[in-house]
Structure formats: structure tokens, C-alpha cells
């Protein structure tokens, strides 16, 4: 069996909170119990929101908690040319993408109109309605040549027709047939950025030899997209393990704005790493009435 390689991949847009402490500790202990390897990766492609000082602070917090990882720490912002060549150009070459000129406002209006038209439609669904999928390609090319902003979207139906049916394995919930109904045609790159979260995470997990992607269950649906990208790019898929999320006393999921629960604040108040991790454990238990199954070693039949 392959050695377990896990990772924790923070986006340095703020200080880490209890939810991050739980996710990082979960990945670290899962690898250590299996005598595997643990990596930290900085997901800083969003240059407008990510800050270097948060990278330092995030790494200091993880170190203070007792985590140790392999060096060097990979930074996604240094890999843009690689994402372009190893992923974006290949997907465009496969004919499973299209340029999208829609603004956020146009997309919102279209979704609202569709929700209004469909009686009993689910108003919370915000999947891109595919306006640019049918748009005349010459017209689109002219607009782009004229300087228009655009995104590159993955044509989900076409991509899945290319790969055929796919399955991925969650180590707790078992085999999951790929279905893209929760995401539609996701953005995989933009005019000024040759990648997106979905593309970079797949390329990097594969490049770093991650065999078990542990992360919060808020990313469960995204894994369908990731499995598809692995298949399109001819990469060997890992297994995934989606754990529960930390919640505050009112049952709301923690966010970076919950600064009173940041690791740093708790540390400054004099708490020890063990006390902070116990708080994280308690917060994750609040996140669900169901007990969390213990992490299990990845199965090999996905
Ligand atoms: N960078 C993501 C975050 O901070 C995590 C992505 C992942 O684990 O796949 O939420």
C-alpha cells in the first residue's frame, strides 16, 4: 500500500481559527499515525486577498500547535506558469472549456430570472446558467481581442462525455459517482490568472504526491469537480476524507472574521496548544449531532 501523504493548505487571507486548527491537526495526525508524510501548502493565488504577513503568522500558529511538516512549503503564487502549461492549455486543447464574458451582475440577473420563471424553483441555487456556452466563438474572440474581461469555464457535460462515468472515494462515506449538478460549469481560469482554486489544488496535490486529501465537508461537492479534472489531465486521483466543521456556540460555522476564536488570540490569552486543540474538538462536535467516524486508512479500490 502507498504511504499516506496528507496536507494542510491554508489560504493566507487572515489568521487561522479553531476550524483550521482542527483541519491541520486532523491531516497531521492521520499521516503520523500511519507513519506517513505531512505537507503544508500555501494557497495564495488570490493576490488581492492573500498577504505575506499572514503566511508567516499561519505557519507560526501551526508550529505553536505542535505540527511539523516537510520543507520547502510550496506557494501556489510561484506556480502560475506551471498551471498554464500543465493544466489550462491542456484542457483548452481537449475542447472541454469555453470563454465566458458574463459579469457577476449578468449571471445574478439570469439566475434570478430563471428562479422566478421556474415555479417552486430553488432560489438558493446559483449555478452558472451557461449563457456563454452557446455564444458565437468568433464574436467572443473579437471581444476578447478588444480587451474584454473573461473567465475560462469547464464545460461540465462535454468534459464528462470525454472521460466517461467516474467515481471517487471518500474514506468515510465510500464511493461517490461524479455528479456535477451542484457546480455546473466552474471557472478554471481568468484573464489575469491562468488557474483557479479547482485547477491549482488538483495540479498541486498530484505534483506533491498527496494520497489522502483531508479537508472540511464544505468542500465535499467540489471534489466531484476535482475528480473530473484528475481524469481529464490523466493524473492519478488520491482518496479524500471530508471531516466535519467547527461551529460556534450558536451552531454557526466558524469563519476568519471570528477573530475571538483565532489560534493567536487564544494563545495570547494563555491557553496551551492542548487546550486549543481540545476547544477545536469540542467545536467540531457542536457542528453535528452525528459522532465523527475515526479516520481510517485509505482503501485501494477507488
Ligand atoms: N485553501 C483552502 C482553504 O483555505 C483549502 C483547500 C483544500 O483543502 O482543498 O479553505
Automatic annotation (TrEMBL):
Report which superkingdom the organism of origin falls in.
Answer: Bacteria
Alphabetized UniProt keyword annotations:
Aminoacyl-tRNA synthetase, ATP-binding, Ligase, Metal-binding, Nucleotide-binding, Protein biosynthesis, Zinc
Q: Which GO terms describe its cellular component?
A: cytosol
| Keyword Phosphoprotein part of the UniProt annotation | no
Per the UniProt record, which EC number(s) apply here?
A: 6.1.1.-
Q: Which family does this protein fall into?
A: Belongs to the class-I aminoacyl-tRNA synthetase family.
InterPro entries noted in UniProt: aa-tRNA-synth_I_CS (IPR001412), Glu/Gln-tRNA-synth (IPR000924), Glu/Gln-tRNA-synth_Ib_cat-dom (IPR020058), GluQ/Sye (IPR049940), Rossmann-like_a/b/a_fold (IPR014729)
**Pfam families, per database record:** tRNA-synt_1c
Name of the protein this chain belongs to: tRNA glutamyl-Q(34) synthetase GluQRS
Q: Which GO terms describe its biological process?
A: glutamyl-tRNA aminoacylation
Family matches, as PROSITE patterns? AA_TRNA_LIGASE_I (PS00178)
Q: What class of enzyme is it?
A: ligase
Q: Which GO terms describe its molecular function?
A: ATP binding; glutamate-tRNA ligase activity
Amino acid at each position: 500500500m502507498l504511504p499516506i501523504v496528507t496536507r494542510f493548505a491554508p489560504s493566507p487571507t487572515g489568521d487561522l481559527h479553531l476550524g483550521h486548527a482542527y483541519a491541520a491537526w486532523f491531516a497531521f495526525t492521520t499521516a503520523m499515525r500511519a507513519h506517513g508524510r505531512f505537507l503544508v501548502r500555501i494557497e495564495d493565488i488570490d493576490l488581492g486577498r492573500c498577504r505575506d504577513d499572514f503566511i508567516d503568522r499561519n505557519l507560526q500558529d501551526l508550529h505553536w500547535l505542535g505540527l511539523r511538516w516537510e520543507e520547502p512549503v510550496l506557494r501556489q503564487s510561484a506556480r502560475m506558469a506551471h498551471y498554464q502549461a500543465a493544466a489550462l492549455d491542456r484542457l483548452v486543447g481537449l475542447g472541454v472549456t469555453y470563454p465566458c464574458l458574463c459579469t457577476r451582475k449578468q449571471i445574478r440577473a439570469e439566475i434570478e430570472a430563471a428562479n422566478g420563471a421556474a415555479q417552486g424553483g430553488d432560489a438558493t441555487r446559483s449555478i452558472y446558467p451557461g449563457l456563454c456556452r452557446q455564444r458565437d466563438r468568433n464574436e467572443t474572440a473579437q471581444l476578447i481581442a478588444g480587451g474584454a474581461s473573461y473567465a475560462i469555464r469547464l464545460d461540465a457535460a462535454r468534459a464528462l462525455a470525454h472521460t466517461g462515468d467516474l467515481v471517487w472515494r471518500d474514506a468515510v462515506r465510500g464511493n461517490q459517482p461524479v455528479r456535477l449538478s451542484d457546480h455546473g460549469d466552474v471557472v478554471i481560469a481568468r484573464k489575469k490568472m491562468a488557474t483557479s482554486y479547482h485547477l491549482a489544488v488538483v495540479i498541486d496535490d498530484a505534483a506533491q504526491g498527496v494520497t489522502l486529501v483531508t479537508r472540511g465537508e464544505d468542500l465535499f461537492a467540489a471534489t466531484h469537480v476535482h475528480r473530473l479534472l484528475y481524469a481529464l489531465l490523466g493524473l492519478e486521483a488520491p482518496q479524500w476524507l471530508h471531516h466535519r466543521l467547527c461551529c460556534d456556540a450558536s451552531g454557526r460555522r466558524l469563519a476568519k472574521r471570528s477573530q475571538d476564536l483565532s489560534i493567536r488570540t487564544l494563545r495570547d490569552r494563555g491557553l496551551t496548544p492542548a487546550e486549543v486543540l481540545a476547544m477545536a474538538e469540542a467545536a467540531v462536535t457542536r457542528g453535528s449531532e452525528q459522532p465523527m467516524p475515526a479516520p481510517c486508512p485509505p482503501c485501494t479500490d477507488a
